[in-house]
Amino acid sequence: MRYTMRQISERFGLPASTIRYYEEQGLLTNVGRTPSGQRIFTDAHVGQLGTIGCFKNTGMTIAQMRAFFRFEAQEREHIDDLLALLRENRRDVERQLEQIQSNYRHLLRKLRYYEAIQASFEQGTPHPDWADYANADVALPDLFEAADDKTADDADGGREISTLQA
After folding, report:
1. Which of 94, 91, 99, 97 is nearest to 64 (CA)?
2. CATH number of the domain at 1-59, out of 2.30.40.10, 1.10.1660.10, 3.10.310.10, 3.40.50.300?
3. Which pTM was predicted?
4. Distance (Å, rounded) from C-alpha 90 to C-alpha 96?
5. Three-state DSSP class for residue 128
6. 61 by DSSP, 3-state: which?
7. Residue-wise pLDDT tens digits, 25-82
8. Looking at residue 156, what is its pLDDT?
9. Do residues 107 and 115 make contact, with C-beta atoms less than 8 angstroms apart?
10. CA–CA dist 166, 56 (Å, integer)
């Protein structure tokens, strides 16, 4: 299928300038043109933009994404490089997740503390002490259970690296 700049921009919620930047940086290649010079995108570009969005959200740099697409284009010759890059990004994301979980626990403690304050106001009971909440154990929901199942499926040969949708 063929897409205009406007369609791609709307689909991904990106300004045209960002899409042009990705093209200038070599992340979007082989972008066609109409006789009047307007860009024409394909389903392959949609897949690439989905991957770019995903990788950008995980903190991957433009240079790392450029390397990824270069390695992916010649995966037989660069499979070790491709895997090293993805594993490095996975470690970075795991560190981010640990920090997010720590922040989430703190948020839950604050929420419980202020809910207890509200209840004390309503019931006329003594104001709670933050010390009772500050280090309380907070169980986190397993938000990644489904993602873990998908990862196991991918280990069996799933190959949707460049077709992730944003």
Report:
1. 91
2. 1.10.1660.10
3. 0.73
4. 10
5. coil
6. coil
7. 999 999 999 999 999 999 999 999 999 999 999 999 999 999 999 999 999 999 999 9
8. 42
9. no
10. 10
